[in-house]
Amino acid sequence: MIVSALLTSVGINLGICILFFTLYSILRKQPETVHVYSPRLVAEGKSQLRNRFNLERLLPSAGWVRRAWQTSEEDLLSTSGLDAVVLMRVFIFSLRIFSFAGIVGIFILLPVNYLGNQLSLIDFSDLPNKSLDIFSISNVDNGSKRLWIHFSAVYAFSGVVCYLLYYEYKYISSKRISYFYSSKPQPHQFTLLVRGIPLSAGNSFSESVKSFFTEYHSSAYLSHMVVRQTNKLQKLIWDAKMLYKTLVNLKSKNPTQKKFTRDGFLGLFGRNVDLVDHYEKKLEDLEENVRMEQLGLSLTGEEVPAAFVSFKSRYGAAIALHIQQSINPTEWITEQAPEPHDVFWPFFSASFMQRWVSRLVVFVACFVLTVLFLIPVVFVQGLANLPQLEAFLPFLKGILSITFVSQVITGYLPSLILQLFLKMVPPIMKILSSIQGSISNSEIEISAGKKVLWFTVWNIFFANVLSGSAFYQFSIILEPKFIPQKLAVAVPAQASFFIAYVVTSGWTSVSSELFRVIPLLYDIIRRHCTSIIDDEFDVPSFPFHSEIPKILFFGLLGITYFFLAPLILPFLLAYYCLGYIIYRNQLLNVYELKFETGGKFWPIVHNSTIFSLILMHILAVGIFGLKKLPLASSLCIPLPVLTLLFNEYCRKRFLPIFTAYPAECLIKKDREDQNNAAMTDFLDKLVTAYRDPSLMPMQHSSDVEGYNTPLLHSREV
After folding, report:
1. Diameter of the chain by CA atoms?
2. Mind listing the pLDDT tens digit for each residue in 324-351?
3. At how many degrees (to 10) do helices 147-182 and 638-653 cross?
4. What are the sequence ranges of the domains in the chain?
5. HSE-CB for 689 with a 13 A CA cutoff
6. What is the distance between the alpha carbons of residues 634 and 412, in angstroms, rounded to a whole number?
7. What is the pTM of this model?
8. Residues paired with residue 311 on neighbouring β-strands, in sequence order
9. What does R_g of the chain's alpha carbons equal in angstroms?
10. What is the 3-state secondary structure (H, E, C) of 152-215?
């Protein structure tokens, strides 16, 4: 890619970002779009927009930037929780390491690369037509002593990254402990999920659980709630909810006008009936069926071999969690219960074998998806290589000879196409994670996030590298001793593509997150093109499974290309600066975190950074060998070893805190609760905290006429 193609891509994306910022600063002040840009504030009753017109509403302003910047970490912690703080710490950590990298890369490495003569055969008559390769290490002469500057930079950068990783791990660990100490008693702190309950002769699962824990945990056991099979009931509740929405929308069109239908098959046969009366009768029947089904399940419903077991203290629950309960390890399996509202109910009926098979199926599905994704990757690489594209599609030669068209195709279009294909990956990975037998939505998010991260690393980084200039050497790369050398050839060759990818996928995606294109379009269609009235207002949950992998992948690109192609660094810094402000704004105004993991996303960040460092070290070994500097190549070999030792220390020192709270914390917190008069009431409520929501009485959020009271009042079971 030449410089002018990159500048074209930068110009297009910068224009899109400015357009999104301008439109957002105007639309966020309009009463019609407040549900799009401030749904959290609306739900909390904090929105101060008024319908009264004033000119200031039509002028763009940057007041939201100041408010997002001035919000303290403590305020963010109190309003959004520790997971939101950890997300912001990821941006802070990235800004710190790439600020150091940017200073070294732009002011030291970039001039050294540019003044090299390795690529002197290329025509450098004017800067816009120069190849971006002249700014990479590829332009430094083989055997040049200037390569020792790159060698020193690799060592210095590795040390800085490891120091900042240690600092952040320690800081977030202390925050996690402090957050635990400051929290009120929570049901999940006292509760375990027990699966694989053996069924003894003459006893139900409920009786087996009570007998087992009364005998072996008599001093700590409080109560239990056996999970029941509620698939049929859930379907009835869903049907009732959909029918209720249909009835609300029907009456909202014209309450005085009578609407008729036939009560027979598909509304084609039978007698004419008033549509509203017909749906009201059907809704009454459905709710009655729901109540009868709930009553039947409460009394004699089918039990699942799983139960939520609650204890009188956190320490008592921890002992039961960490001790194997049975001689047979597939029975009485204990795991920490999630928060009650975080429970994912559908897969409690899965047995040990069913969960194992589902994990195998998901693994195969992820592998197939990864292989299929190579198709758009190879296509994108063809677009990025203009001579190859002309040879494959000769009829486009005339169009491709137009300078602007060729710049757009090579500099902007490949990254845009890849980004559009990537949009489908996070929801697919979330669906796959949900069928693995996870017990909570937060666990599904973490699992999906890991899948998206490694899918992105393989399909966007390695697949692009291997399908580019070094694709024909794929079989050689399978030999371990050639990996550093071949990657050292292939990775720098794709530097220009990844610089354009950061601009397109980074800048534009983060600005579109601010503008919220899809929710805005949906809101416009709903208000102006349909008569649908959705009386349920739902605040969106933050998509950790898609956003954190994206942030970490850009970190991998920055670390990998730090000494190879430092031109990528200013574009990365711009992305992280934008992301820091925009995501703080979104957490304050848009998203409501539906669960709290206590910062469990940070170990994923740590592991990804360690992987990126080791990849950089492997590339350093290979590139210095190719550049005829064998001593520097040999001296880089200790770097991955030292990094792995550092990672092992962090894993031993900090990771256990993210797995479970230590006895010191649990006992201290339990002793504080002994003097808390509210604990008696809390333990009483704990008995029913994990009741299946489908067994709770149905309550609609509004009625058809006044949108204030239930349409049909439910009776307690």
Report:
1. 94
2. 998 988 889 999 999 998 988 776 655 6
3. 10
4. 3-183+355-653, 192-350+670-695
5. 30
6. 39
7. 0.85
8. 221
9. 30
10. HHHHHHHHHHHHHHHHHHHHHHHHHHHHHHHCCCCHHHCEEEEECCCCCCCCCHHHHHHHHHHH
